[in-house]
Amino acid sequence: xxxxxxxxxxxxxxxxxxxxxxxxxxxxxxxxxxxxxxxxxxxxxxxxxxxxxxxxxxxxxxxxxxxxxxxxxxxxxxxxxxxxxxxxxxxxxxxxxxxxxxxxxxxxxxxxxxxxxxxxxxxxxxxxxxxxxxxxxxxxxxxxxxxxxxxxxxxxxxxxxxxxxxxxxxxxxxxxxxxxxxxxxxxxxxxxxxxxxxxxxxxxxxxxxxxxxxxxxxxxxxxxxxxxxxxxxxxxxxxxxxxxxxxxxxxxxxxxxxxxxxxxxxxxxxxxxxxxxxxxxxxxxxxxxxxxxxxxxxxxxxxxxxxxxxxxxxxxxxxxxxxxxxxxxxxxxxxxxxxxxxxxxxxxxxxxxxxxxxxxxxxxxxxxxxxxxxxxxxxxxxxxxxxxxxxxxxxxxxxxxxxxxxxxxxxxxxxxxxxxxxxxxxxxxxxxxxxxxxxxxxxxxxxxxxxxxxxxxxxxxxxxxxxxxxxxxxxxxxxxxxxxxxxxxxxxxxxxxxxxxxxxxxxxxxxxxxxxxxxxxxxxxxxxxxxxxxxxxxxxxxxxxxxxxxxxxxxxxxxxxxxxxxxxxxxxxxxxxxxxxxxxxxxxxxxxxxxxxxxxxxxxxxxxxxxxxxxxxxxxxxxxxxxxxxxxxxxxxxxxxxxxxxxxxxxxxxxxxxxxxxxx
Length: 664
Known about the structure:
Helix content is 2%, strand content 59%. The chain is built from three helices and 40 strands. The chain has a 27-stranded mixed sheet that branches.
């Protein structure tokens, strides 16, 4: 085992359970981080609560994140039919990229794959979470490195959120099954939770009917994950939190034999003290692997076997908050993250099946930072500001290839690099009254290129994309201003106007026929408006989100200068209407719209707009049981997820589920 350092952890405390305290000698643990700083609302955020997390038609976290207009993955596919290595998350139309431009945290631990930078969405099941907080825009503070498009904070459900036992069993279209269960128990002065999920399906045809061949098969999937979490008190003001996550995911994409496999073993330990000096310390370790077989679209035989991609992520954070009074909160500390990985793959002659090359690439990168953030409350005004100083290093990397005779044909060794980056943010929140608040913020941020972007080329027929070991870090500058209104006690509205500029943006740039290379372009600029609204009257509620993003590429002298970044829609919207009485039947429906977006940098291939409708209905049966029906894409909208010169992939068609939930 390698040594584990301390790593950044978020503070998602206030909306969840009661604070840790001693009552009559009994210690009550919280299972969360330190409370949110008072200046947090100045940066704007959207919260998806536990009730909404429990009412998803797909049961997948990436679908729920689409409630926040502007959230997108590299492609429109979910974690049943997408290649896992393409499931990067971004916000604000800052350009499609298979690596995440958004920092995704689970109980403070960055979840991106150490080699590829994608998010293992299939392992992040909604029923294990208390809430999700999405903050768009760059970050400094404790979450700066990597948060160029925003931060998505996932908080595990605590003892107060979970019954002693609950579970569900569903059967769906195309012989799909989904089983999940959670158990929670008090343990001494703390608690322990154990959860598991397994789902599989024969899958749907991602290939349009006119493009199918004898080798075309549905996108089958089969995956499981299990999580164990324990929280124990150390004193009346301190507790220790331990979490483990295991997952495995197998999918078949487009052609028979085009199988990919991903797996992970994650562990973290965290100390939280809410004493006079507040302390939040965290350490984590991640072991991941990925494999993928590419099938030739002409001979339908194996052309590439990316047989082994082991990677390791480890890091830690230490945050301190001295006692400065109720109106002044200072937080400071440091964090470190390290990612290392290797890629082993074999290339085949698709006509003869003979190995033509064996390739091995890999490297290591480290980011270590120091941060400080200060919040002042002056009556109705809250001022906040923070700064980071990060030292990053990319260790010497390599790419080697051997021919069919085992003779070395390529032996590229890339020099190591290092540097310092400063990140800053500042914001102000002015509460004009109990019903209105103004906010404004400015920020910078940066993201290192992933090992995948630096060293691994890839092909998605008919296009090959080359790696680039000389990629520079992406750097963001942004400003935003917004207003939040409570127009009625049961109705809330919010609007945010933003301007973001991502300098040295990493993009897949066309350099020849069916040939691209990852390159830094001068910048991607995105400006627009984000609107949110909610209304509740009795058992009926409406939640809506809309994002307009006018994004362009600034690349003087290039053919795509002034074009819209690849995979970036201009309009995105989501509306959920729910009828949820405390007792009796419940129903909710969600409509989502994504406007046209382009597949490539030259705007030659477009993905047409898509409007989908999902619904969930629940009927209590008694004794803790409920009958649940779920429907995805009820009107069977054709959702194009890839279009490369007319070669297309499609997203989830109409999918129906029927199942039983139990809670006691």
